[in-house]
Amino acid sequence: MIISEKHDNTLFSCIKINDFGVKIGNTKILRDVNLHFHSGDLTALIGPNGAGKSTLLKAILGQIAHTGSITFVDKAKKLIRKPKIGYVPQKLDFDYSSPLSVLDIFAASFSRKPVWFHISKDVRKKTIESLSRVNGEQLIDKRLGVLSGGELQRVLLALALQPVPDILLLDEPVSGIDQNGLKLFYSIVSKLREKYNLSIILVSHDLHLVYKYADYIAFLNNGTIECFGTSQEVFSSSKVIEIFGIDWNEALKRQNEEGEKYDSMV
Amino acid sequence: MTVWYKIVDFLLPFQWAEFDFMKNALLGVLLVTPMFGLLGTLVVNNKMGFFSDALGHSALTGIAIGVILGIKNPLWSMLGFSVILAVVIVKVKNVNTASTDTIIGVFSSIAVALGIAILSFRGGFTKYSTYLIGDLLSIKSDDMLLLGVTLIVVIFIWIFLFNKLLLVSVNHSLASSRGIKINFYEYMFTIIVAVIVTVSIQWVGVLIINSMLLLPAASARNIAGNIRQYHVYSVLIAVFSGVSGLLLSYFLGTASGATIVLISSLFFAATFFKKILS
What we know:
The complex is a heterodimer. By secondary structure, chain A is α/β, with parallel strands linked by helices. Chain A has helices at about 55-60, 100-110, 120-130, 150-160, 180-195, 205-215, 230-235, 240-245, 250-260, and strands at about 15-25, 25-40, 40-45, 65-75, 80, 85-90, 165-170, 200-205, 215-220, 225-230. Chain A contains nine helices and ten strands. In chain A, strand 1 and strand 2 form a beta hairpin. In chain A, helix 4 runs parallel beside helix 5 (about 180-195). By secondary structure, chain B is mostly helical. Chain B has helices at about 1-10, 20-45, 50-70, 75-95, 100-120, 130-135, 140-160, 160-170, 170-175, 180-205, 210-225, 225-250, 255-275. Chain B contains 13 helices and no strands. Classes of the chains: A alpha/beta, B mainly alpha.
């Protein structure tokens, strides 16, 4: 077990998003978004295309301007600060021909020395430690562009966990990862979640996965959270049923009872 | 400069090195090419090739504005205009996520047309044509100081800010998740590119400055497996092409900038085939 730094995520620490709003031009993309995430919880963010999921992600990351606040509150409710965020993008939109090695991107993230000049043995060691969390030590000297979809996802996960964040944002990959790769990825995520008591936000398109693994579901529609609760609560909501066409509660229950098809997946 | 002249006389006892203009040009090349080698790596990574081309073209408008305002040294009006253009392009690009190529193309064409229209007013364009192909051999000791300072600024930035610039070039969301202020670095980098392209344009020329910026880095990335190799190859190819191109142009009587570009394009061809074959 590797814990490289002191970490204060405990059962009762929490991340609060208060009154988030995003306006682009005159269009309100997001409004009145209020969410609380407790450490150790996996919260899935679902919603139809165009509901504002990626905008909310970008706002949480601070990539686009927003109103409202996001704060990390520790268990004693004494420490209040901006949360450290680990982010695993859905698809890393980067130049696959770039001569960028896995070690380069780690060194650039946590070393002050310019990576074109020198990468110290310490940084290399730290990178190996990081990669070992995701069974990826052997990838260290490979170019980022030659990794398979699953390998890249694991490398990005390791990067997001260095340093261990207050909250882990996972944008679920839609394509490019084979079943085995996905299975490995989620088994690593659940192990790490237990180990570091991470609070995780999973932006998901796979309702089977969400139903099975999310502690809470936030349903984003028309630019705001229209429904929040456990999977059973959310999937019983008429709004959710309306958007996704069928009663997922019933459909998924039936499917899970029948084939356990998705057990093998995760 | 006298020190440099003595060094050249001592190290290079050849006929070509007896001329002061060649000594100056050699020093100029040794200052410009490593700078382009370094800068090119991130320009290529950020897919800014077309953007730097537009900046080069905007130099014409910069000169034209200088002429209108009656500024003696056109460098200042060129710098001012290219920095403004760089900022405007990034702003427009960030607002409108449509095709960046089109946006840059539009600005570039306007800049060139405006520049040519003003400079050709009453048929006076010929005296500005040196800006089109550049003239390394006309480089003077005063200009050396400016080039030296810009090289030092680039090295300084590459030492202290490179890692963040690299992460921004990989992916914006990933960089912001690590607390990097994307906008700041994006503007800073484009402004640096604008300044360096403008400062060097007199010597290298509007038509080929972009090739000098892109070719060494583009060749290096054909064979590099990590960022360190990328930089080493890029700078080496840039400096080697620069020096050998300068000498070749002396013996062949060709334009030095173009000769340098031709040599680096040989590097590109060679590395490209190596990449395909391996």
